[in-house]
Each structure stands twice: as structure tokens, then as C-alpha cells.
Amino acid sequence: MSNFKMTRDRLLGLVSVLTGIVVLISSLSIKSRMQLNEPGPALFPRICGFGFLIFGAIILIRKPKADEKPFMTKEGWIRLVELYLVLMAYVFVGLTYVGYMISTPILLFVLYLMLAEKDKRPRVWVAALLSLGIGLFLFIFFRKIIGVPLPQGVILPALGIRL
Q1: For residue 153, what is the DSSP state?
Q2: In which band, very low, low, confident or very high, does the pLDDT at 135 lie, cut at 50, 70 and 90?
Q3: Domains of the chain: which residue ranges?
Q4: What's the rounded Cα separation, in Å, for the pair 126 and 58?
Q5: Is the whole model's pTM more than 0.85, yes or no?
Q6: What is the pLDDT of residue 52?
Q7: How many whole angstroms separate alpha carbon 103 and alpha carbon 129?
Q8: Residue in 65, 25, 70 with CA at minimum distance from that of residue 46
């Protein structure tokens, strides 16, 4: 395996495998009562985790094309690590302590600014409005329409706020 090149596809596969592992481990802490007629709240995260893991592994082990070049520069790797750290902070700190309703718009805002090209970055107020709107839409869709319980964290319940 001395010819191993980190191509764009292999990087995607590696990130997918790591994400799948994190999602599966996180889904083990979802508490649910076993009922035969309802799959429970842990089913969807586990399906997603297995999907990321399996398809990421397939992409990772696939033989690259002969003309495929290595993918990232040092700056690209640094940006990838920053992005991954932001996402892990969202999952393990934001959702756990702050809850979905506050941490998701913050994550969307940060990602919107991180992923936009420097010369095409939106105005801060546009990014903030989009982040709040998308976060609210997702909350209404998941919580109110399809009834999926979303993490409340510990701050809002400690203040007596239930969503």
C-alpha cells in the first residue's frame, strides 16, 4: 500500500467513516423504551451512522483512477480539521449543554461563514438571518410536524424553558 494517495474521494470516504463511527457511538446513549410497533428515536441516527460507515468504507477502499492527483494542500488540511472540530463541538458541547434550538443556528452561521469563499462571503446579517430561519424551519419540521424529540441541553431546562 505504498502507492496510497489521499485523493478527494478517499478523503470523503475517511470523513464519512469517522462520522459514521461518531454517530453510532452517540446513538448508543439515546434512551428509548422497546416497543414492537415503534422503532424508537435511536433508529434514524443508527441508520445514518451505518450508512456513513458502509458507504464511506466503500469510497475509501476503491482504487483511484490512474490520473487522479493528491487532493489537499497543508492549508486545506488545516481547514478540514477546523471544520471537523466545529462539528464535533456542535455535537458534543452544543447539543449536550446548550440544546438544539440555540446551538443549531450558531452552527449554521459559523459554517456559512467558514465555507463561503472569501470574496463571496455574505454580509453578517444575511448569514445570521439565514441561520435563524433554517434552524427554526428544521425545529418546526422535526419537532412539531414529525414529532422527533430534539436535544434541549441543560441550560434551557435549568431556566425552566421547555420547547
Answers
A1: T
A2: very high
A3: 1-71, 72-163
A4: 38
A5: no
A6: 93
A7: 15
A8: 25
Sign of CA pseudo-dihedral 127, 129, 130, 135: positive
Q: Which residue's C-alpha cell is 446513549?
A: 29
Closest by CA position to 133, among listed 100, 161, 108? 108
Which of 55-59, 96-100, 101-105, 119-123 has the weakest average pLDDT?
119-123
Positive or negative CA dihedral for 148, 17, 135, 106? positive
DSSP of 29-90, one letter per residue?
T------SS---TTHHHHHHHHHHHHHHHHHHHSPPPTTPPP---HHHHHHHHHHHHHHHHI
Mean pLDDT for 85-103 is 91
**Cβ-based neighbours of 159, under 8 Å, separated by 6 or more:** none
